[in-house]
Write the structure tokens for this entry.
Amino acid sequence: MRVLNIGSMNLDYVYSVDHIVLPGETESTGEIHVYLGGKGMNQSVALAKAGVSVYQGGMIGQDGQPFLDACAEFGIHSEYIARSAGKTGHAVIQIDKNAQNSILLYGGANQCLTKAYVDEVLSHFDSGDILLLQNEVNLLPYMIDKAYGQGMQIVLNPSPFHDNLAAADLSKVSIFLLNEVEGNQLTGQTSPDEILVEMNRRFPQSRIVLTLGEKGAIYFDGREKYFQPIFPVNAVDTTAAGDTFTGYFLAGLVEGLSIPSALKLSAKASSIAVSRTGAVPSIPYRKEVEDALANEPS
Ligand code: RIB
């Protein structure tokens, strides 16, 4: 079973601010950092650091070499990453003193996928392989149909939520990993229980992991339901916390861990990620996560 992740790669320009800039307001900051990020790249790094072999697909621009270097550093297969003539995607991220963020996304090369490109990449994968997707690249409906047609399992993190998802046949998704906001946008429901019930009614074949920020995460597949609380930490930057959770949870499933064990591993990994700055650099290695779990009081 191989994991292919056709997802975004963004240069994250991160500004530390007192508060998120208000409409019409100008705020100064003396602190900028540039990190590798993008939900696709972050989730591949989490999978790789968790110990799973992952193939990253997607597009970078002419300035995208750092992503290829990072793939080499973390042992991510990069042969399916293509280059477009334009710029790599980027994100302008403000982080306030409470570790809250606000993200402005420029899609760039992430929005330049073509059907020919997708067909070529998917031709190297088959039934039993997994396609991991987020919603920062174009052609999501096409990729879901095509991968499902060739028997791949589809894991979807529908983030950020956008109307394009209305055109996708989400009944073909095996596992959804989403947060409360996305759950609300997808189902119209507000409470976690209502979101899960409605997701299960619409997608009875799918497994659902609903992350609830500081309130933890819930797994539900129509029969089994598990709750995982967070591991409280001093949060400095929540960017990529969800991506770390997604990558680690999928890694746990690929390895054959039980759902409660996969949830616990993911929750610990994302708690470490929020205690560090940046997207890719904040994602912990498996050993750090396991050492931290071993140090938890029983
Ligand atoms: O999920 C975090 C990511 O969202 C950041 O790395 C940024 O690039 C945006 O895509």
About this structure: The CA atoms of residues 65 and 83 lie 10 Å apart.
